Amino acid sequence: MLVFAISDKGGTGRSVTGTNIVYRHALQGNDVCYLDFDFGSPTAGAIFSVSAVARGTPENGLHEYLRGECPQPRRVDVWAESDREGLRTRPPGAGRLVLLPGSEGGGELSALTDEIVGRCVQLFGRLEEEFDLCMIDVSAGRSFTAELVLAATVRMPAVPFRWLVFHRWTRQHIIAADGLVAGADGLLDVGSRFGHDREDLRDRIRFVRTAVLEPDAAELVGLRDEQRAWLSACDSELRELAGRHGVGRTAMLGKIPLDPVLQWREQLITDEDVLASKIANAETAAAFDELAKKIVDDSAWEGL
Amino acid sequence: MTPVHATFGEVAAERRIASVPLSHVSVELGHLYMEDFEAGPDRLREQFRRVAPWLATVRSLWRERVPGGRARVSTCFLVDDYFSRFSTPAELVPMVLEAAAEHDLSIDYLARESACAQSGGVELARLVEDRLVDDPPPETDGSRPPVKETGWLCNGSRSPRTAPLQAMGKARPWEPPAQNAKRGHSIFVDVELWDEKGPRRTWSCPFLAAVWQLLRLGLLRSEGRVPLPPVALDGGWPRDWDGLPAVVRLNPQAAPFSAYTTLSVLSPRFLPVELAVRTILSQVAVDDEVLRQVATRSESEGVRLEEELVDRISYVFV
Amino acid sequence: MLVIGEVHTGLLQNSGEISESTCRQVLGLMAGESVRVSRRPIVHALSPERLTGVDCALPAASRSRIRGVGTVVSRCAVTGGRVAQGSSYVRVVRSETDRRLPWSHYLSRPGVVEVLGKAKAADLAEGFTGDPAPGCLDLGAVSGRFLDLVQASPLLDRRAPFKIPRTSLRWVAETGEPSIRFTLHTEQERTLRLTHPGPFTPAVVDLCEDLATHDWLLTSLLVIVERARIGATPGAQAVARLAPAIDHLMHLWMPAARVEEWLTPFWESLERRPGFTRQWRSLVDRVRDQVAMNTLALLSATAEAGRR
Ligand SMILES: Nc1ncnc2c1ncn2[C@@H]1O[C@H](COP(=O)(O)OP(=O)(O)OP(=O)(O)O)[C@@H](O)[C@H]1O
Ligand SMILES: [Mg+2]
């Protein structure tokens, strides 16, 4: 299964959520890989705490591969190469966790050629043979990268794929996320131009809300009643807005609560962070865990 | 008990390659396009008048070359029914034969150009396309698929792309294309093999001409069989080109259609086409077994063949 | 001088095994050339061979620059409708000249790479089975693409029963005193050095492909058994994880089935050390024991429930 992670705006939590989902999926016993297609700023290595590729790899990164400058992209075994103590041993029963970093100093694609699409198809085809889940961070907004993966998936019709659109729980984000999917020259438009079936593609897209502060969250305990009432009103207004924009509950795969650790640092939330050092919230880890299951659970993906 | 030696065979697991009878040389007396036809029978007569002395020369050259002087020379004539359909076999063929006879030429075989694309369920053009092996520019190590411009074939490397593939990346300065086998300077050739409008693919004239050469050299096989063997026509000439066999034997006494070598007598206006044909043929990998068959046969009758295929093809441009 | 090759082996990307006729279509890589199929003792289908042109440095242990020009022969195979392979090789010979000849010269010698200048067979053999520098002849990439061609066939549903990496076997064959050396490198990489009596024939390639198939089977069964975490997870769960091996792999073990008689001693010596079949049998037994134990447990649980 290929899973494309996209967001309309930058800084929504796409990378942090995507990497945590992949990590949880590996803990659940699956072989997984994460492809950093965010060519303008490939920083997935930092989230996995692999300092050697924190800002991409100096050699054999994904951009170089796609541009035809190296025959195969580098693979990083996170269980072996992470600097974080808690990640460096593969937990019993966990699957493989592999990162394909972008190229250090790389830039966004500025054109799409047939060769690039061909290389992308080869890459996806091979990874899908050996990994249960391949998460591809497609970067933010309308980009050649998004076009690239839309073009590539048309050429491999039997390979299963899904899209996750990440957004924050604000007016602007909700409208933008809808625009990215259904707006002019959005995913559905461009996808159908490349040869995807519009309805089929729509069924393969779900939204994920990131850094959500629930009105009844523990963080809000100290608030005044007026503040709480205002938040509650905002929340229901947003829910109404989301429903109107097709970003509502039915199209949502899950939401990740706002977490203090993630607010301060982009990282994987391990069970140790929750149970031993207690710096992260159990709800956050549980939400990642849940999403990691839902992503392959067909009942969560039945037609809208 | 002594050990029993078992042999087990499976027909489907073996590969069988039919052999084909071969002349020494196949001479193409002409190639008729619509424009020639429209120019009237005089154009044809003129063509045959020019060809006749060359045919005589080729015959005598091969008589000298072959032990015992028993040279097998066959002649053929190709009609274009692929790029444009004109006239009918019933009208055209007798006219061609008559014009040839005026110069004492006998046409042994008549072929249709469209047969080089496909005929009788055999897509000869596809067959040849699948046998193309691109001439690799230096530093081709197999790590990447051969650089292809879909539907084109060249004799070197094309100009690299100058626009950057990466935002804020550097553009490359223009570089010329280069011929792989250049002697000091390049003669870069890039040949269009086919184009596609909607689902229909049209093969280019040089590509079909390359197929035609391979057919005449007896180097093609389809499922191990010889494709499009010549057929004698009984009954009259059909009214429709599709009713005509791909290769018709006109002369029952003719030497075999396919030959060790070919000669084409052509107007100089075909020079660019034939350069393209050579570019294509120098990148066709003929089946090993077929090459061996031809080599063994020619050796056994004392004929030394050029090792490379393109060198078995010659032309007279008049 | 020597022959070098590389075989990539993987699980055919289809939910079930494919029929002989589907094999023929999937492997029909060249118009007018048929797929060769043998049915005994296991269905084995072999595509027509195709060529790829190369002009590059050859891997040398001494890192000296040795230029080779010629064509690589490649083909694909499907064994038991389940295991797919892309396989390439070249015969390396000395060229009669020091410069590159017209391309048609090389096309009339399919599968031959001619070395321009000096080269030692031992240097090349070491270099190829060692750690080839980038930019050197990359037979693995060619084989990988041929395997892609099979895996991307529209006739396959891409719903393979389990995910498993491909393995690669890089081999070198030379003429001489018979010997064979099989080496495991990383989890997916293997090398084979083979010295055979008499001249090279394509039967040597068959042998290498057969070894690659069986090494892949063994490697994959090991992975599946490891994933099942026998003993660490409840029996029923472990058995469920072993099921794909039972359904899709266990019947495919047919060592040396397609190997010509004069080459079978090579297989036999590998059977003595490290003993491929021995390890395979013990794994298969382990899987069967798990299933049997689980069935017993189920039966007694049902009986217990009946008594109560
Ligand atoms: N659930 C969360 N709670 C609190 N902070 C979060 C949460 N998820 C993400 N963040 C923080 O939000 C910021 C942006 O996250 P991230 O880098 O993952 O976004 P992105 O969409 O990948 O951004 P870009 O488009 O720049 O790649 C980071 O500082 C991250 O730690
Ligand atoms: Mg990011």
UniProtKB/TrEMBL annotation, chain A:
Keyword DNA-binding attached: yes
Keywords: ATP-binding, DNA-binding, Nucleotide-binding
InterPro entries assigned to the protein according to its UniProt record, in alphabetical order: P-loop_NTPase, ParA/MinD_ATPase
Domain of life: Bacteria
GO molecular function (one): DNA binding
Family annotation (NCBIfam families): SCO2523_fam
Protein name: DNA-binding protein
Organism: Microbispora siamensis
Automatic annotation (TrEMBL), chain B:
Top-level lineage group: Bacteria
Region (Disordered): 132-180
Protein's name in the database: Uncharacterized protein
TrEMBL record, chain C:
Domain of life per record: Bacteria
InterPro entries listed in its UniProt record: SCO2521-like (IPR049749)
Record's protein name: Uncharacterized protein
